[in-house]
Amino acid sequence: MSITERNQAIASEYRWGNAKELAAKYGVHFTTIVKIVRGQGVTINDTPLIERFKRRYTVNKETGCWEWQGTMANGYGVISVNNVLQLAHRVSYELFVDSIPSGALICHRCDNRPCVNPEHLYAGDYSDNMRDAQERGQYFRERARNVRLKQTTVDEIRELYSTGSYTQKELAEKFGIAQAHVSRLVHFVQWPKN
Fold first, then answer.
1. Which of 49, 66, 92, 141 has a 20 to 30 Å separation from 160 between CA atoms?
2. Contacts for 161-166 with beta carbons within 8 Å, 24 or more apart?
3. What is the DSSP letter of 120?
């Protein structure tokens, strides 16, 4: 059997989850099976993207947010599209609204990172995103890029630490940040007094 014939046979016999079985049958490594199948144009996961997407969120009835229940990264949902992880809110925008303009960000009107409700999303630029964050009280320093804390939270961390009831490590665990970050906050290295 030629390599071409072998590859065609593998592609025709491939089903989700049987790569190792085919590898043993044809005497190749199982990752080779996946490469062969991709090269033959066979879809690895044949469930349409929109169906996979719809199974991965739940609707919050109070806010209307479609909250992502799948894989998360930095508070945002992610989903595999053509074997590449994509931010779920960007995929939602493309599935339900329109293609994303070149260089555009997809911003949340609801200020909820896991939300993928297309009605809560809009295409904007970095300035739009920063302006919205400032209006919602989430962005206080021009140099701060990935701000996850609000001023009220920083004030609370400082107040709790000053009581002596909490260690920096306990505060870090409580607020989901690194102990080193707590140290920089309570010593006013980050977020200096206004």
1. 141
2. 161/186, 162/186
3. G
Note the pLDDT tens digit of each residue in 175-186.
888 888 888 888
Q: Tell me the HSE value of 178 on the side-chain side, using a 13 A CA sphere.
A: 3
- Give the Cβ contact number of residue 153 at 10 Å: 14
Question: Using one digit for the tens of pLDDT, what is the confidence trace for 94-141?
Answer: 999 988 888 889 999 888 899 999 999 999 988 888 787 777 766 544
CA–CA dist 118, 62 (Å, integer): 16
CB 88 within 8 A of CB 76: yes
3-class secondary-structure state, position 113? coil
The total of other beta-carbon atoms located within 10 Å of residue 188's CB is 10
> Which residue blocks in the chain are alpha helix, DSSP H?
3-13, 19-26, 30-39, 49-54, 88-96, 126-135, 151-163, 168-175, 179-186
CATH T-level fold of 143-194 = Arc Repressor Mutant, subunit A (1.10.10)
The residue to which tokens 């479609």 are assigned: 66
Cα separation of the two ends of the chain: 76
Give the start-to-end residue ranges of the domains of the chain: 3-39, 49-135, 143-194
DSSP class of residue 154?
Answer: H
CB 87 within 8 A of CB 121: no
CATH code assigned to 49-135: 3.90.75
